[in-house]
Every structure is written in structure tokens, then in C-alpha cells.
Amino acid sequence: MKNFFNNQSQETIDDKQIQASRVNTMISDQYEIYHVKDDVNQTQTLYHYHDCYEIHATLEGEAVFYIDGEQFDINAGTILLIPANKMHRIMKQSSEYFERVYIFMTPVFLKRYSTRKTNLEACFGNYGLGEAKILKSNPDELRQQLDFITFDTAKDEFGVDVTFEQALVRYIIFLNRLVLSNNSELHPKSNEINERIDEMIKYISEHLGDDLTLEEMESHFYVSKYYITREFKKHTGYTFHQFVLKKRLLYSKYLLRERKNASQIFSDCGFISYPHFLKAFKKEFKMTPKEFLNLLQDNEKIHLEHFETKHYR
């Protein structure tokens, strides 16, 4: 069966090895967990997205994190709950040491352990259009909750896989309870990099079906298109047109999940014709919309190139 939960990002500039260990080796194809202690290089962490849920937990250190144009300071005890297809990046590391745990997870896994009374997906909101949540927990409690990542999952020991997954589910329950507590969520800080570009990113997200040209943005934001072109590339790593196209294609995946018909959704994503949409979709995701819909009917599997290459993206 083909894997279709793939990390998408821009190529990095240098060949620095990251210090990352994959935790759940050979246990499940429904989630991947990484324990990371590398330095953050701004040139290596451009905006990217995943087709699955991401949980980013900071165990030690400080950094600046961007999610769809909003900036957050994260430190020990900070937990990011990032829905599928949400553009995000680590902007910069603010401390000498930065330790975190990434968990990438399919909806299938969470549904398997959910019940009528306990919906484990609730903390992420809507799969395709949910808003990211930034939570604050006690650093010592968070490290204790993640203690299960030290399990030796490669051991050929009866019950090790079940024990590991039970601990993972307990962690997801812990996160849902944090969300339900209503007093753990952090708010974005004012942007120190380029507030105008971030306003444009938010505007793009809210008008994906409209005419998003440089001329329209120039008129709406009262800045020259040359300024937009220069600053957008500097701020996001993408040209203005590349960024708009990626956002539209990510939105198309959400609509495909909802409506199951590619010919009915292309104009809602801002494409002028179905052939144009089809060509762009195939180039970005290496499959047709029909193939994507067929994969949705199968048992979704996760496969990330995020930490399997020598680059951190």
C-alpha cells in the first residue's frame, strides 16, 4: 500500500546532520516520534506542512515559532498542536540548547482509541481547517508525560508495543485535558519581523477563492508589488505566487475530503480551470486528486521524510 502522509518543504541549504532519534522504530505506521536536540538554523526551517497532525513539545530551551503568520515564543513546557496542512516553521532559536519531541500522527490512530465519550481528535479541532493551539504546561510534568519515549521499542519483549501505545494514548488524553482546562493556551505576540507580510498571509488564508494577484495585494495593503515580492521571499522562503499556490492546494485537500469530487472544488480554491488545478495538484503532491481520494478510502499510513534525510526542514 502506498504511503501518502508525506512531509512537504523546501530544500535546505547546507548538509548539517541533525541530532534526532526516531523513537517508535517498527511499532506502527500510524505515528512517528522524534526526540531532537539539534541547533535551529533559520535557513533550514522555511515554511512547510504535513498531511498529518503534529505535536511539538519543548523540553528545554527557547525559540520563536511561526504558524500561518502568527509568532509565538516557545520554551520548556510549551506544546504546539498543529493540524494537518497548516503552514509553520521555527523562526529562530533563542537559547544555546533546544530540546524537543515531535509526534506526527494520523487521524486513523486517534479514531482507533477514541470512544463516544472521549474524542482524542478534539484537541486538534477540524482536521483540514483547524486552528493551531499553543499550550503551556509544567515543564517537569511534560517531561514525565513523555517519559515513555525512552522505552526500548526494538526489544523483542512481549507486550512492549502495547505498553508503548498505551503511554502514547495517555499523553494524548493529557493534551486534551489541557485544552479543556481553558487556562493553558498562549496567544501570539506582536511580530518583530514583518507585520505587514504577516497580515498578508492571514488575508491570503481567508481569500483563497478570490483573485490573489500582486496588483490586488498592492491595492489592498497600500504597498508596492516590488516590496511584496522582495519581502515575501525573505520572510517565507517562497515567492508570493508560490505561497498562494501552496495554500490553495492545501485547501483543495480539505475540500476533497469533504466533497469527494475534484471537478466541483477547483474554483473554490482559486483555480481558473480544472486542467490548471489538476496539473498543479499532480506537481505538488505527486498524485492526481482521484488517486488522493482512493487513498483516503484505504488505511491511511504515515511516512515522513522529515527526519529520515540528513536535512532538518
TrEMBL record:
UniProt keyword terms in alphabetical order: DNA-binding, Transcription, Transcription regulation
Molecular function GO labels: DNA-binding transcription factor activity; sequence-specific DNA binding
Keyword hit for Cytoplasm? no
Which residue range or ranges hold the HTH araC/xylS-type domain?
198-295
User: InterPro entries this protein is in?
Assistant: AraC-bd, Homeodomain-like_sf, HTH-like, HTH_AraC, RmlC-like_jellyroll
Pfam families, from UniProt?
AraC_binding, HTH_18
Q: Does Transferase count among this protein's keywords?
A: no
Question: This protein is called what?
Answer: AraC family transcriptional regulator
Q: Which gene encodes it?
A: araC
